[in-house]
Amino acid sequence: MSPVRRIATALFVALTIAPAAQAWGPLGHSVVAELAQRHLSPAAEAEVAHLLALDHTQSLADIASWPDEIRNDPAQQALWKETRPLHYIDFRDPSCVYVPPRDCKDGKCVVAAIPHYIAILSDRSQSDTARLQALKFLVHFIGDIHQPLHAGYRDDVGGNTYQVQFQGQGMNLHRVWDSGLLGTRGLDWKAYAKMLDAEGFAPLPPPVAPLDNPAAQWAEESCQITHDIYPSGHKIDQAYIDAELPVADGRLRDAGRRLAEVLNIALQNG
């Protein structure tokens, strides 16, 4: 069994038997990272600290938005161009069933990116520099795949061309879900993560085939959520916030939990 398949299978087992316990903007990505940090095993925590020291950072939240930030770094434009398609997946059918040749041509989507970077991070023969970069992408992409509009099926660029009214101003729906909706809580990322962690993790749905691709299941979950998040009349009112903010919170919690499980399995001793 390949390392990626072994990790994926173990991940599904861990998530199935674990007790009940979500692309976002910087706030959401930091929340996901902090939730994962709180649930790292001792071995994973030590290896994460070892890798982060290369960047003179100390927490997963410090690197959570790096894959977005490189778009503004002239020295990283080649890497940004190469990895930009890996932040999302465009389903080609409202059934939200993942068909790789159709939905992830040439492996250029977030579903394929996650196992790719798991393989690099878990391979101790790789350089620490390569493994740190893989860690950065994993932290970010596991957050991305849980943002529903990073896994939609409509022809609106993930809600970027779907305009809404939100808090008295025009905004696209993608931005609402990236940051606007979470911002209504008025919390910084540490306080937000603490609140979600105190609530515990909701039970996760049972795994579905194929068992060797949990990222596909996570993307399918996000895609299904997009069926219900387009507001009537293109207006985000308080009723919408009351209904959808708990959904966003749930995706953040699931992303944090799953990121922790991925890292705990990938960074076991040995």
Automatic annotation (TrEMBL):
InterPro entries: PLipase_C/P1_nuclease_dom_sf (IPR008947), S1/P1nuclease (IPR003154). Pfam families: S1-P1_nuclease (PF02265). SUPFAM superfamilies: Phospholipase C/P1 nuclease. Residues 1-23 form the signal peptide. Keywords: Disulfide bond, Endonuclease, Glycoprotein, Hydrolase, Metal-binding, Nuclease, Signal. CDD domains: S1-P1_nuclease (cd11010). It comes from the Bacteria. This is S1/P1 nuclease. It comes from Dyella lipolytica. The lineage of its organism: Bacteria, Pseudomonadati, Pseudomonadota, Gammaproteobacteria, Lysobacterales.
